[in-house]
Design the sequence.
C-alpha cells in the first residue's frame, strides 16, 4: 500500500480548493476494503472530488481516493459495479450492452459509490429505480453487509448512508437491474427541444445519451477540464420543497418561456413533487443575480445555481458565500436551502 504524506487535495477536486491530506492513498474499487481497513482512522473515502468542498485546513487522518474498478455482467440485465468506477463509464457500458434505465444520467460526474449515496437522478431516471442492492463496509468494525434497495430509504438526492450514524459506512460495490427496452419517455422540455433541434428520436440509447449530454453541456453541467478555471461542483443546492402558495412566486422567475403547467410537470419529473421548485429560481427570487461575484467566487453567468471558483478562491470564501445565500433565502423567502455539495473538514 503506497501511502503519501501531506498531499494537496485541491487538484483532486472539481472546485480546485482544499488543504492537505495528512495521509493519502490512491486505490481502485476492488482493493478498497483492504486499503480502508489497513489505513486506520479517521478515514475519508473520496471518489472524483466532484461534489465536495474540502476545507483549506485539510483533512486529518487518511484520504483514500477510490477510483476505478470492475463492471461485471451477472446475467442479461443485471450488472455489478465497483464503487470507484466513474459513473459515466458505467453508463457508457450499459449503453454498449443495450440496457435501459439509467441513460438519462449520462454525464453526471463522480463515482458509482457517490451516486448510490446521493441517489442521483436526472430527467426522470434515478439510482433508486434500478438499484438491487449494494455491499457495505463498516470502517469501524470491519464488517461487510449486503443492503437491499429498501434499506437505503431513498429520497430526493438522499439515502440512509447520509445519516450521521452511518458516517462510518462505505459502499464497496452496487448491483443494478436494467431493461432491454426503454424505461420511461424523455419528458423534460429543455431536452425535448434539443432532441428536436438535433432531429433525434429519443428512443435509442445512443440518441438518448447524445440528447442528454448536449442538454447538460448547455446547462453548464459537464465537468470543466479548463486548467485556469472557472471551476465548479455543479448545482450547489438541492431543489427545495415550498408551500403551494410560494410555487407561483418562485416559478415566475423562470425565463425558458414554457407554461406554468410545463414547469410544474418538470418539478414533478426532476424532484418528485410539483412543489419541489428549482433552487435556481429560488436564488433569483431572493435577489441574487447571474454572474454575481464575491472576489474570486462567482455565480455562473448563465446558470446561477453553479457556484464557481473563478481562479484563486479559497474553500472558506466559497463556504461563506454559501452561508450568505442560505441565510438570505431564509430571511427573504422563508425557504431553507440545503447544499447538495458535501463539506469536508473544518470551516469557521
Sequence:
Amino acid at each position: 500500500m503506497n501511502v503519501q504524506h501531506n498531499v494537496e487535495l485541491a487538484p483532486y477536486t472539481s472546485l480546485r480548493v482544499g488543504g492537505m491530506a495528512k495521509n493519502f492513498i490512491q486505490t481502485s474499487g476492488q482493493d478498497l476494503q483492504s486499503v480502508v481497513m489497513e489505513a486506520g482512522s479517521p478515514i475519508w473515502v473520496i471518489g472524483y472530488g466532484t461534489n465536495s468542498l474540502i476545507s483549506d485546513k485539510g483533512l486529518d487522518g487518511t484520504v483514500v481516493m477510490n477510483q476505478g474498478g470492475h463492471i461485471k455482467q451477472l446475467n442479461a440485465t443485471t450488472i455489478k459495479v465497483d464503487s470507484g468506477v466513474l459513473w459515466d463509464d458505467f453508463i457508457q457500458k450499459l449503453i454498449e450492452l443495450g440496457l435501459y434505465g439509467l441513460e438519462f444520467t449520462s454525464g453526471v460526474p463522480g463515482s458509482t459509490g457517490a451516486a448510490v449515496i446521493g441517489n442521483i437522478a436526472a430527467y426522470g431516471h434515478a439510482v433508486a429505480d434500478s438499484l438491487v442492492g449494494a455491499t457495505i463496509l463498516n470502517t469501524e468494525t470491519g464488517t461487510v453487509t449486503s443492503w437491499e434497495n429498501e434499506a437505503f430509504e431513498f429520497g430526493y438526492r438522499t439515502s440512509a448512508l447520509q445519516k450521521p450514524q452511518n458516517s462510518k459506512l462505505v459502499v464497496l460495490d452496487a448491483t443494478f437491474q436494467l431493461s432491454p427496452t426503454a424505461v420511461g419517455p424523455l419528458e423534460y422540455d429543455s431536452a425535448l427541444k434539443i432532441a428536436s433541434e438535433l432531429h433525434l428520436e429519443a428512443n435509442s440509447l445512443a440518441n438518448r445519451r447524445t440528447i442528454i449530454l448536449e442538454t447538460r453541456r448547455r446547462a453548464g453541467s459537464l465537468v470543466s477540464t479548463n486548467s485556469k478555471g472557472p471551476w465548479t461542483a455543479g448545482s450547489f443546492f438541492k431543489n427545495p420543497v415550498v408551500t403551494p402558495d410560494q410555487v407561483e412566486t418562485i416559478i415566475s422567475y423562470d425565463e425558458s418561456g414554457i407554461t406554468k403547467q410545463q414547469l410544474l410537470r418538470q418539478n414533478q419529473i426532476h424532484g418528485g413533487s410539483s412543489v419541489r421548485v428549482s433552487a435556481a429560481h429560488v436564488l433569483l427570487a431572493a435577489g441574487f443575480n447571474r454572474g454575481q461575484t464575491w472576489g474570486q467566487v462567482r455565480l455562473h453567468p448563465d446558470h446561477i445555481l453553479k457556484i464557481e471558483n473563478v481562479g484563486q478562491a479559497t474553500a472558506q470564501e466559497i463556504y461563506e458565500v454559501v452561508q450568505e445565500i442560505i441565510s438570505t433565502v431564509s430571511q427573504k423567502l422563508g425557504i431553507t436551502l440545503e447544499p447538495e455539495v458535501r463539506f469536508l473538514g473544518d470551516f469557521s
Summary: The longest strand covers residues 169-177. The chain has a mean pLDDT of 93. The CA atoms of residues 211 and 221 lie 13 Å apart.
